[in-house]
Amino acid sequence: MTTITTWNKRLKKVYTEVKEIEPLLTAAIKQYESMYSRGLKRIMQSNLKEIMVGVPKEEAVDLLGPKLLDVFEWDDILPVEKYSKFNALIWAKRIQRELNQQDEVIRYYRNRLWRIHSSLEKLEEAYRKNNEKKKVRKVDELLYQVTRLILLRPYHVSDIAKVIELSFFPMTKNEFLSLLSIDHSKERAEEVKSHIDSIPAKVDFNTFCHFVRDWVLEDENNDLFFTILSHTNVEAAVQRYDKYKLDQAK
């Protein structure tokens, strides 16, 4: 039979674990935010560099203005003779891959918190049955803290999808396909081929979104553009689901 002493030991262990996780999760989220911010800056640099291709340096300085010097290093945005107009998209993929890796770290801590939340619910029930009011209050305080941490999300100043939309250059069908990691699985072979055949000769941003987000042409293990374009909706859905689970647990 489980005793009060055993429950108290479990509570102490849970308390220690929450105390350990909180700074690690907070640091992981701050790191994500920093990576996101640097990534947006890198995409914007690529856009500016493309816009300024071929412009004389002196003229570029006048066009860009001194305010941009507060945000970018001149060497990062001053014009070059040649620069791919798709570099911003390539950078977006690279940045999203790094963000996905960091998100794995955040989810690791969040999953640990969900397990702790479940343990605390069981402890609360046990203490209530034994009229341990002080312990119930302690558990409730921990539940509040754990809930707050579960719902903690990185803050985004802007959205990568919005940035690439504002700077999107129309492209040919072949250029579009060259940017994607196409799903070559046997299960979707006919479906993907059908979608590819229907891609128009010229691809604007809406077409780009349609084939990436709606028809999901990318391989599921490398669907970085899909993640970028769906990020806001997916994150909102995850947060709503987390809130729903927490409400159900009350």
Automatic annotation (TrEMBL):
Domain of life where this protein originates: Bacteria
UniProt name for this protein: Uncharacterized protein
Lineage: Bacteria, Bacillati, Bacillota, Bacilli, Bacillales
